[in-house]
Every structure is written in C-alpha cells, then in structure tokens.
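PROTEIN DATA CARD
Card holder: DNA translocase FtsK
Chain length: 827
Origin: Rhodohalobacter barkolensis
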Amino acid sequence: MAKKKQNNFFSNLNYSRKMEVAGILIMAVAGLLLLSIASYNPTDYAVVKSLNSSSIFQIDQGPALRISNWLGMLGAYISYTLVHTLFGYTSIIIPIIIASLGWFVFRQNDLGELGWPAAYGLWVMVLASTIFGWFYNRFEAYSMSWSGNSGIYVAGILENILGLGSIILLLVLMFVSLLILADRDLQKTFEVIQSWKSDWKSKREQKRKEKNRKKEEKKREKEERAVIQQRQKADAAMKKEEKQKQSEKNGEPASIDDIVERSQKEDEEREARRKKESAELEKKPPRAILEKKPEETVDEEDDDVEISVYVGEGDEEASDKELDRLNKSKAKEVPVIKYKFPGIDLLTSPPNEGNEVDLEEIKENKRIILDKLKRHKIEILGINAIVGPTVTLYELEPAPDVKISKIESYANDLKMATAAHGLRIIAPIPGRSAVGIEVPNSSRETVFIKSVINTKKFVETDYELPVAFGKTIENEVFMIDLTRMPHLLIAGATGSGKSVGINTIITCLLYKCHPDDLKFVMIDPKKIELSLYRNIQNHYLAVLPGSDEPIVTDTTRAMETLESVTKEMDERYDLLKMAMVRDIKSYNEKYDTGELDDELGHRHLPYIVVVIDELADLMMTAGKQIEEPIARLAQLARAIGIHLVVATQRPSVNVITGTIKANFPARIAYQVASKVDSRTILDTGGADQLIGRGDMLFSNGGGMTRIQNAYVDTDEVERITSFIGSQKGFKKPFQLPVIEEENEGIPDPLDDIDDYFKEAAKIVVLHQQGSVSLLQRKLKIGYNRAGRIIDQLYNAGVVGPYQGSTARDVKIEDEEDLEEIFEELGV
Ligand SMILES: Nc1ncnc2c1ncn2[C@@H]1O[C@H](COP(=O)(O)OP(=O)(O)OP(=O)(O)O)[C@@H](O)[C@H]1O
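Structure generated from the sequence above:
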C-alpha cells in the first residue's frame, strides 16, 4: 500500500504545489490569448476558412506562411471570434482577468476577492465596445475591430431606442465606472503627494536648522575672540598694576584714576569669564534642543534666564487603514484557520484637539523653581520645558560651580513651593550636566490606545511581540518587543492603572499577532480583570486539557497550569534540540518549510504569554510552590517563546522575592504607596512620586523612562474580544500538556498499554536512560506517543519520575527483572 502511494507521483504533490502548477498553466493560457488578440489580422480568417483538415500537415506551403497571427491557425480563429465577432480589441480584458485568476490560484488567495474586479472588467469591456460600436455606426471613422460585431449590434439597438440619448447614457455610464476606479487611485495619489510635501517640508526645516546652527557658531566664535582680546587687555592691565604696586612699594601713591580703571577692568574680566563659561555649556545643547524646535520662548523682562518650551511632535500616524490592510494579508498567509484581525475602527478615536500647552503655568513653575534655587544661592543659566502628556520636564542648566547633588537636596522644598504632588527630580539627567524636574501638568492628556496603535512605528514594526505602552514625555510612542525583555514584572497600588496596562499589552498583541502564532495563559485570582478574554478562548487561549474554565482563577489550578507550562517548555526544548535550532523563530521557519516531520512530534509553536494578574494572592496561598515554576519559566523560557507578564499591587519583598526579581530584568512601576515599595520594584525611589492613572516608570536594567500608559477602556476590550470571538476559530483552546499524576505504581489498564510498550521497556533498560527522544529515535514514533509510553513505563515502575529537561532514571537493571514486570502486567 505504502509502495503504491509512493509511486503515485501526483498524490505525493502537496496541495500548495498543485495550486502553483495550476496557477502557472492558467497564466500561460492567458498569455497565449493576449498574443493572439495582439496579433489579430482581419484577413487571417479568410485563410482559415479556406483550409481543410489536411492543411495542418502541409509543411512547405502550409497555412503558417499565409496566416499572420503569431499563434497560427488557432490564434487566428480565437482572435477572430473575440475581436471580430464579440467585443473588438476591448476583449483584451478577458486574458487579463484569466491571468489574474491564474495569479490568485498561484498565490492561493481567496478567489472570492476576484469576483467584483472581474465583473467590473467585463462590464467595462462591454461598455467600451458598445461606445466604439456607436461611433462606428455613425461615422465609420475607424476599423470595426475596435468594437467587434456585438458592440456594433448592441449600440445599434440602443440607438434605435434612445437616439442621441444612447451615447449620452453610454458615456455617463463609462464616466461613472471610471470614477469608481479613479477614486481609489486618487486617494493613493493624494497620499503620495502628501508624503512628498512632508518630505520637502522636513528638508526645508533641516536647512533652516543648519543655517541657524552656523549663525550660532559664528556668534560664539565672535564672543570667544572678544574674550581673548579682553584677556590680553587684562594681562596688560595686570602688568601695569604690578608696576604700580612696585612703585607704591617704592613710596609712589596710585592715582584715583588708576584705581577706578583697575576696578572697571576687574568687572569686565568677571563678566567675560561668565560669558565664556555659559558659551561652553551652550556647546552641549540638551537632548530636546537637538531634536526639536522650540515651540515658544518665554522671556520675562525682570528675569534674565530664558525658558524654551518644547512639545514633541509625536510619531507619524499610519496611513488610513494601513494596519487593517497588512493584517488582512497576514491572515491570508496562515491557512490553518480563516481569521480576520480586529479593525482599527473598533478603537475609540482621540478627540481632535491635542493637549494645550499652558504657558502661564509653565512660566509660574519656572518662576517658583528659579526663585527657590536663587534663595539657596544656586545659579541657573538656562531652562527648557518639555511638555509631555502628563508631566512637564524642566531641564535646568546650573552654573558650572553648582553641585548637582545640592539641587537634589532641595527637592522637598521645591515640592512644597510648587505644591505639586508627583514632582520628581532627576539629578543629573543621565549623560548630561543638567538637572531635570518633572512637574505634573494641571490638566493631563489621556493617551488613547488608538493614537499609539495607529502609528507608523507600531504598524510597520517587525517586532515579534510588539507592545506599545504609551507615550514618553517627548510624545513619542514607547514600544518594546516582549521577546527581548523577555518577561515583565508590573507593580502598582490599587487604582494606579495596572489593569489598564495589562489590557494595553494584550490589545497591542491582539492587533499584531495571528491566533496561530500567539496564545495567552491567563491567571486571574481576582476573578474579574481578565474575564472578558473568555470570548477569545478558541483563538488565543491556552488551557489545561479537560479544563472547562479558560481563565484560571483558583490557586491550585494556577499551580497546575504553571507546571504544565513548564512541561510545555521542556517539550519545546526537546523539539528545538531535535530540530537542531536555537530559538522558536528558526524552529517555526524550519517547520513551515516542511523540513520537520509531524510524525516525530514536531508542530508549529505559538508564542505563549502567561499573564498573572495579582501575584500576591497566589504567593500568599501557595508561596514557594508558585514561586518555583515562575522562577523556572523566567530563567529558561526565553528562547522557546514563553514570556511572563506578572502583576501585583503589593510590591513587598515576600511577594516580589529575590528569586523572582532576579529573573525579571524588565519592570514597570505604576504609582506605589512608599519609597520602600518603589525600591522593591525598581531598586530605586521614584514610583512613589508618580501620579496614578497610567503614569508609569519603565526600567530595563539601564535607565528609566517615564511613560503615560495608553488608555484602553473595557468597552474597547469588549468590542475587540467579541469581534474575535464571533469568528469560528480553532475547535478548542490550545491544549497545554497533561501533567504527571503524583500517585505512583498504578499501571494503566491492560488494553491501554501501547503496542510498543515491551520493546520500549527493553530499549530503556538497555540504554539505562528514560528519555522520550530515545524512544522516538529507536521506535520511529512521534513525541506524543513516546511521551505516553514513558508515562506507562513510569506507572509500571520501569523508570523514575519526571525530572525536567534531564532523562528519567531507570529503575530496572536487566532484562530478567523486566520479564518479571511483564509477567505481573500480563503483557
Ligand atoms: N492609562 C490611563 N489613562 C487614563 N486613565 C487611566 C489610565 N489607567 C487607569 N486609568 C484610570 O484609573 C482607573 C484605575 O485603573 P486600573 O483599574 O487599571 O487600576 P489598577 O491598578 O488595576 O487597580 P486595581 O489593582 O484596584 O484593579 C481606571 O478606571 C481609569 O479611570
């Protein structure tokens, strides 16, 4: 039977290859039709008619010499039918439609999508041939090949009915038809023109900046020259003074003019020194100045420190429906299920008016800050304000002799003066000799999730698991790839925005990852936060086999689920080892190209994101038992595509233990109650100064970024999950592996024992190694079956319990003992 199958060449071709061959053949037929129409000659048909069946065998005097059509007799015949009898040259649309059909078959696209364009093409063909026919009937100004007989005939009937009105009707119909086509292209054309326009604008802006920079440079050079000249003058004056002192010593008194002149010189020198030093500082403009133009410069007469106000332009919006378009083609590439990504229109649009910059507030804050610092004798040379969605960062450039730590020590004073809760001091701003003071805006801007998802940055990203948390103080979208983190630890007091944050993470992933590539394990001891995602269980959730509750809410189930995820991790390691690849991406690529055999247990591996909303509840009831699998997953799961997102509202050391912390380098802190809590999560203060409602700090080992978390509300989550849930999806949620039963020594019922059981037992005893992959290799069976046999060997007492990624111990030393076991079992 197997042999027969092998011999059958066509049945061995996979579906996709067959479609590709069919697609190419259809396109070839279209090409031939096109050639025959293109080389149509009205005289050919007369020749064809004069031929008889024996003509095709006449080689020297054959029809080939008399027929001008490139495709000979057949070409002449077909082109005569299409061009002369039917629709004239407009019938060229027919091979175009056939070629498109071939292309769709070749690419295995949905043929349904071709329906309307094909119908449109045929309609335009008939219409155009009728219009040509009408003019031919009236004026005979050109050959009838333009309209074909049927065009002339239909035009004649219409003219009989409507007279001159028929051509008006035909032209209007043609205009409307073309408008439908042009309308689409017009949009694109406008977009192209717009992008040219913005390119041109940014070039002009760059030139302007360059010009300003040169101007500044010249100014500085001039000032430096002035300083040098002054110094030379001062040197000369000093020499003169010394001479005078000498002469005073010698009893000659200094004149009053000399004394006045000397003190004037001293003043000038001091002024020049100050200017030079500030010029030095200017040479290192703050980050914001380098990147953005000041929106406004506020200069008060009574105050010589200028403040420049910057508002980041934010990331470029993605063009209309770009995300939907990309997602549509992504969904098509995965034929395992028919799936439609949620559209961008399910998300609430932000109101048009952006956050207004309150210059009065900025001026007032500047006045308070400078006033306070002045009282402590701290001189500030310049100040920039960068206005973010939630807070404004005041960047202060202190005079060179001011110690930065001194400013930090007045933090409390500043807080009191600005009466601002949430004032945070960054001293110094990393890599710069400036100090940052973040003061919350009196009116804050809500960052809608749509405004981060519908950006070019997010839409065009090639990250595997992209998460756009929200916006930074410079209004830029802050985006990470979860695969690179590779896990997230989130802490924040009640009401600080954690749950919204988790929804943001999930929403971003739902908008970018196909259900075949991503599964969530959701653990929600609070029982409400993640319940909405029950809707998407057949698409995106992974569960324990036999579980009827896709969202895990009780601690025992949570432990079992995490153990099962750990088992999945071990299985994945084995699969990667067998496939000789280092990470899940390469594994899936290899699997998708058909290099890995399903029979050996290979399968497409989706990313698994384990979301735990409220670690504290689990730690309180299960302690170490829950900590262990979490730590193990966090340590090892990186390469095989399992990522953890763990949140807690109690960032105390008995919840976020040293072991957990050590394995989660990427951490997010929302507002917490105390500095101690902030230290537990971030290893430094700062989170206690946040102002809630999604105001967060992100730390990934290095620096820290303050971000306003994007807001996604329950209605939006509901819309998205119902949209996904209403589609058919997979038959059931993704099944995590079954975990080992603790009870030992109960053999499986006899009729369940695998046919390979005895053989497998002998192999295991011979090699003294209880490993699934050994059985797979030796018995040429799949992973699941080998795993089941190992479980049975364990129940029969041949091998020891499961020990993670290392092989099980073998309890039986030789075949004699093994035979005894076989006897006991009756196999
Ligand atoms: N990014 C945000 N932008 C604007 N408002 C927000 C944002 N995040 C949260 N909020 C507001 O704060 C409220 C509380 O947020 P959320 O429920 O996420 O807090 P939480 O930390 O999960 O609290 P709990 O632990 O009690 O569930 C929300 O109802 C919303 O009004």
